[in-house]
Design a protein that fits this description.
Two copies of one chain form a homodimer.
Chain A (H helix, E strand, L loop, with lengths): L14 H15 L11 H8 L3 H14 L2 E4 L3 E4 L13 H7 L4 E12 L2 H7 L6 E11 L2 E10 L8 H6 L2 H7 L4 E12 L2 H6 L7 E11 L4 E9 L6 E6 L3
Helix pairs in contact in A: 1-3, 2-3
Chain A binds a DNA duplex (19 and 19 nucleotides) through helix 3.
Pfam family, one (chains A, B): GntR
InterPro entries (chains A, B): Bact_HTH_transcr_reg (IPR050679), Chorismate_lyase_/UTRA_dom_sf (IPR028978), Tscrpt_reg_HTH_GntR (IPR000524), UTRA (IPR011663), WH-like_DNA-bd_sf (IPR036388), WH_DNA-bd_sf (IPR036390)
Organism (chains A, B): Streptomyces prunicolor
DNA sequence: CAGTGGTCTAGACCACCAC
DNA sequence: TGGTGGTCTAGACCACTGG
């Protein structure tokens, strides 16, 4: 049995997108088993009443996601291994929520401060000019998990503490109409200072996982600089990445 | 002055690829400055004697790389910020070489061992079945930087110690015709055990950066499982990531 | 050899944005 | 309202893979 596929031409959803969604659902659901051939593009196009380029566009989007592999002279196959998350720019909040960890946030600092040299360089503003500073403690199951320190340019966002505790910073930025484009990250480790240890209920010198991240919108503006520390017994960075062909 | 663009129809290189390379070079070189408009697709196609879909394909590949941004009703712009490396599946060897660090490698273990439960699960083989084990110490400027422990299925690769010291494992796999597809990574931190401390010239309990990675080829086979420790004063993970639109 | 994906064309209509 | 990218069509030829 080939597979149930159909498109709705009266829908405002692009045809290639309708098709790619159905294919992705079929893969997720198991109707399309790993390693199985997808059938050639011409026949697929004819069956759906679409042109070949449209079908190709649908297939290409899934190839880009790593779900399909194309081989010349062979066909298009469903990838065997379990591809799930191609490393998104996700907030820790979303990650925890998805893992069912019931995240809690305490906003410890929410004020306007002069930019340090490091912050100024990251955000592309003048040193000592005013920027927002947000420090948050993230807890899971009542235990401290991470200390998040963020700096943002002024006038970009309404930074309400209550809202920051109810949702993630990234979600707030997206809601405010900011189009996130890229981020530069650095992940490292170091021993906890006395201050860091106290915040995270660790002892001085305990290994901590650290991340620094500068996020840019699609105009190239830096919209956020974060300097975070994580308890490595409670958190690690897990992600999947695809090889660029 | 608009920009010098031309394609060679007698070349076996695809036209869209020729164009995207020229555009990328122009961005890199500074002929196309950040924020500048690219000119509309129709006119660009006419100027080059190409069809619009071909020009779109060239532009799209650079949008996927994060170098360009398209806006409906506005045009295609060069991204402001510095986008460089979209997180490749690069080997530590290549990273160091690119940074001019003259990496050196000592192969400490190169043998066949029975798979532990963890290794067996990662590689998808039976527990206690034979697998390759490669342990390497990576040095930069004569100082230990990382201890790399890898497990590979048998019969995949000819694992010559001399070659392993002269180049990276990933480069050897690519040379052997293995098409890398995706990898699952986990980055964390912990205190060094006595053994780890000795290997890396640290003291027991010193913070270490850790990474575990399973790499898959395009048929879904696991081709490598690595369990690595890094001295955080000498190495951190730096990368750029793009937001999927 | 037959079949597949890879590339390319010359049009077309629509949705969105700035003015 | 004019210009932009977003989508779509119905073909075509080529390069590579497998038997």
């Amino acid at each position: 049995m080939p597979l149930e596929l159909s498109v709705d031409r009266s829908s405002p959803v692009p045809l290639y997108f309708q098709l790619s969604q159905q294919l992705e659902a079929a893969i997720e659901h198991g109707s399309l088993t790993p390693g199985s051939l997808l059938g050639n593009e011409i026949e697929l196009a004819a069956r759906l009443g679409l042109s070949r380029p449209t079908v190709r566009q649908a297939i290409q989007s899934l190839v880009d996601k790593g779900l399909l592999v194309r081989r010349r002279g062979v066909g298009t196959q469903v990838v065997h291994s379990q591809v799930k998350r191609p490393l998104e720019l996700s907030s820790l909040f979303d990650d925890l929520e998805a893992a069912g960890q019931r995240p809690a946030t305490k906003v410890l600092v929410n004020s306007i401060v002069p930019a340090s040299a490091e912050v100024a360089a990251a955000l592309g503003v003048a040193e000592d000019s005013d920027v927002h500073r947000i420090d948050r403690l993230r807890l899971a199951h009542g235990e401290p998990m991470a200390y998040l320190s963020n700096h943002l340019p002024l006038g970009l966002l309404n930074l309400d503490s209550a809202q920051l505790e109810a949702t993630g910073l990234y979600r707030m930025m997206r809601t405010a109409g900011i189009t996130l484009h890229s981020a530069r990250q650095s992940i490292g480790a170091r021993g906890a200072t006395a201050e860091e240890a106290e915040r995270l209920a660790e002892i001085e010198g305990a290994p901590l996982l650290t991340m620094q991240r500068t996020t840019f919108d699609d105009t190239g503006r830096a919209v956020e600089f974060g300097s975070h520390t994580y308890r490595p017994t409670r958190y690690s960075f897990e992600f999947q990445l695809l090889v660029r062909p």
